[in-house]
Structures are given as structure tokens and as C-alpha cells.
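Bug report

Summary: C-alpha cells for Homoserine O-acetyltransferase differ between web form and batch submission.
Environment: batch mode, default settings.
Steps: 1) Submit the sequence below via batch. 2) Compare with the web form result.

Sequence submitted:
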Amino acid sequence: MLAVSPPDDQRFGLARHIVLPGPLALDGGASLSQIEVGYETYGTLDADASNAILICHALTGDQHVASNHPRTGKPGWWARMVGPGKPIDPARNFIVCANVLGSCMGSSGPASADPVTGTPYAMRFPVITIRDMVRAQALLLDHLGIWSLAAVVGGSMGGMQVIEWAATYPARVRSAVVIASTARHSAQNIAFHEVGRQAIMADPNWRGGDYYGQAEGPSAGLAVARMAAHITYLSEAGLTEKFGRRLQKRESVGFGFDADFQVESYLRHQGLSFTDRFDANSYLYITRAMDYYDVAEEHGGRLADAFRGTATRFCIVSFDTDWLYPTSDSRAIVHALTAAGAKASFVELSAPFGHDSFLLDVPELSRVIDGFLRAGL
């Protein structure tokens, strides 16, 4: 086991890495003999370990929630929400954010070395689910001595993990905040992901997933996958306001045709910059895990049964311009919670940014999260 700093270290944004002994049994029937977890912590854990908040990240996120990213140098993906004086405040809580199982920022995934062979798993890494990600997080919290969480908070795929935490470990979750998320992936969600996966696998540099150690990986395919996905994170009104049909001075950015429209250049930049920090095989595995996600199916086809008898407090938030996980998805979760007798509050916020609204400047979201978390103190 790798040495880690003690969980009561008070430094802000302390990056950690640990190897936890297994086996970790997976939903697909396979198991991992050990798991690596990259994670970051903020604040101080109380003597009774009762003030911990777990933040769950989205598909392309990572553990660097409020500190500068080590590869890009950019601020953490939720620095506007996590930090001193902010809704999730390390002065009040011990905050943990772990890189999900299957990802590429320190946690076990396709790029990790198979402990048996010593070579990267590649596509030999076992199939994973959202619930498998949550089980790995639970092992990490066990190691940190945290049994009861003051709250689990997440948006998009992070919200899926929050729901899974509440369904799988209800006794460990006192409050749950689910933002811009869903309890099951729709056919449309699966279709968009499949386009991205096919773009990666059509790249000749993918090599069946065995591109580690090669001079070139499937960066072109991964960039196209990111471009297609990024469109779903935005809103038509937001794109129109920001770019419209405005032309620009032609520039070639590696995709054959020159970028005539500003929106083309924007998407190409999003795609190419993504390849600097993400692994293509991880993208395949994580998008598949999201597509498998259906909490109701895990509980006999009835979503309410996933929350039957729970004492967890829930806050569900949606955005009016989010067409990837529309408000109707959030309402379905709220209806199930109500049917199960759970304590649930729900709000639809107005924002022009589409699905990405939970990451951007929406002051009302900060007020909602701050108020909900303070009410649970």
C-alpha cells in the first residue's frame, strides 16, 4: 500500500494516491485484485469523522475539483463552488473528491498496469458500472475512517454516483445533492455516446486499444468524440448568442477543412485540448458505464424501491436549457423519492448554458446548495 498523508492534513487541495487491497467484485462478474485511487482532500476531518462531504465528478472531470489541474494548469472544475467562504467550505467540512474507477488521473483504468502482467490493461480492463465506481469510493472512505457522509454532491455523471450512493449505502449518506442528472440513460444519450466511441475506434491509431507506448494514440478520434459530446452540453440559445453564424479568418486546426465559422473553431479547440488530459480507452469505458446506468432496473424495475425507507435528505436541481438530462428526468427522480417517503426538495433553475450550467456562473445554484447543506448542520 502506498503511503498517504493523514486525512486530517489541513492543506488546501492535497493530492493523494493510494493502492487499496481487493478484491473488488464488479457488477460484470469480474474482480480487481487491487485498486488504485487518485483523490484530493480539503479541510479537516472532525474527531468523530462526521463532517465529510464527498464530491463526485462528471465524465471528463477528475479529483482536482478546486485546485489547479496538474496537466493543464487551469483552475479546478468546481472552484466556484468549493473553497473558503463558498457553499462547500473546507472551514466547515472535510471534502473528498476521488477520480472514478476506469478513469485516467490516478485511479485504476485501462491505462493502469495489470498487476499480473505488468503491462497496461488496455481493453482487457473489466467492464465497469456506476455502482462499481461507488463501491471503489466506499473502499477509499473506509480507509480514511469515514463511515457517515454529511453529504454526497455531484452533477451529470457525478449526480448518477450520488443517486447510487443513496441507493447502495443509504445508512452512510445523510444528505444528497443531485444536479443536472438522471436515474437512467435514454436511447438518445446512448446514441450520442456511441458516435463518440465509434470515432475513437475508427482512428487507425487506436490499434484495438493497444496504443500505450506508441508514438501516436487515437487523438483525432478522441477529439471528434469530445466535439460531439460537447454539443450536448450546450444550449442552442447559448451557441447562437455566443457564435451565431459568424465567420472568421480561416484557420486550419488539424481536421482537413479550414474552420470558416467561429463555432467550428470553438469545437475543434475543445476537442484537441481534451486529448492532452484524457485517455481514449477511459472514454470508452466510462461512457459505456453511463449507458448501462438504470437505477430502477437494479431494483426490480421500480425506481421508488431504490429509496424505500431511506433517511437521506435529497436536493434535486435541474436547468431549463438542459436537453441532455432535461427537467423531466429530475422530476422522475423526485416522484420516486416522494413515493418512497423520502425527504426531497426540487428546483428548476433558469440558465442559458444548457447542461454545463452546473459548472458555470449560476449564482442561484450556489445559493441553493449553500442553503441545503447548512440546513443539515
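Above is the batch result. After comparison, the two runs are identical; trailing whitespace caused the diff. The chain has two domains: 14-186+295-375, 188-286. The radius of gyration is 20 Å.
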